[in-house]
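Something for you to look into today, if you have time. Could you write out one complete protein record for me, on any chain you like? The space below this message is yours for that.
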Amino acid sequence: MATKPATLGEWRRSAGHTFAADRRVKDEIRTNLLCKIETGEPLFPGVHGYEETVLPQIVNALLARHNFILLGLRGQAKSRILRGLIELLDPEMPYVAGCEIHDHPLRPICRSCRELIAERGDETAIAWLPREERFVEKLATPDVTIADIIGDVDPIKAARGGRDLSSELNIHYGLLPRANRGIFAINELPDLAGKIQVGLFNVMQEGDIQIKGYPIRLPLDVLLVFTANPEDYTARGKIVTPLKDRIGSEIRTHYPATVQEGMAITAQEAWTERDSGRQISVPDYLRETVEQVAFLAREDKRVDRRSGVSQRLPIACMEAVVSSAEQRAARNRETRVAARIADVYAAIPAITGKMELEYEGELRGADTIAREIIRAAVGKVFTKYLGETNFQPVVQWFETGGELKLPEHATAAEQVAAMRRIEGLLEHAGRLDAKGSDAALTAAAGEFILEGLWAHKRISRSEERGFYAERPRPAEPREPQGRPPRRQYN
């Protein structure tokens, strides 16, 4: 393995010097991006559903060397995309050793590096910065100061060096200068104070800053990327106009367009492979039900659409479903368990905290809204998998007085034994991919079928009685009414 150049002179004489000598960070990203496109490599691994919408716009912005902003509701992978930009940087880059802002050895912009190179020349020590350290991220909050982002005068440096306070050597650099030759990301840009936004666009356009009234020329080499909620960005008007004008591209993100895309994201992000030594299965129809909960919540008029329903909802819900099944397996000392629809109801605490309700929803209560959405989700998935199935024998069993209450922590064998009493119920479990010899999957399928029949109002369910059917009351015989007396006319 060849050793990396350790001095400016060694780097000048190396093969990589010519290639990287004059490239700025946006050109570096352009070059690497075009190489990935040509070879067919995935540009943003783990980001699903944006292949035809968001990602082409991001590629265009990067190829045009634009600073850009991602507008989208919460849980739309905005931060993940920004962090994925790291993969478009070179594996490592040379910089003047010890420099706080990672100055280019051939184009130093800070005074201390210029003086050091003028003094030592080719003997100037250089170091190598990995790409992971070239990404600086800041969450915008109202308490962020100009010193945090741009920098401040350090009086201790001035005193120790015997320099005037206006000297550039006295600066304590903020986050933006420290992101020089890299990527600087600001999340929730509208929450940044106006005077700091002014400092940002001044750096973006003119390349100079003012610290404590002292003007300093600082032509930073940086890609600036931002995120914002579209409601804040457009309606509340908290981004100063000159900054908005200097952002090259405005790209809108969105939630998954299909349930399948949402399921792929949830399967990727949710922690379902547990280390408890138990085999926990989550049937496909149950995974789809969890995803439908998020889709229906986004369409529900009682849920605030301006806040959105994050993709974290189905992810957290799926993790809670698995935990509920895991808990039941531990109680019953089972080594194999399948998640059931009851586990989705047990995951309601993972749902309610991720929905902002409108006034009508607040009156109903988050728990009630969540239960109604789960029921509707079960109904949609039931129709997809079993919509053409004849369940009349099952319904008739309940209509003739049958009732079935499934204990919350019953074993799979106990549930299957109880369900066998219902004529025709378990015959349809195979259509839900339940193997006849697997009691856990059969129990989960039978419970889902009963829940689906209740969702379609073919049977009833209550906490006290379980599943049952309301028997129609016989019509009360009408009492014969006498004929009204004939009216006499004179």
Summary: The mean pLDDT is 87. The chain is about 45% helix and 15% strand.
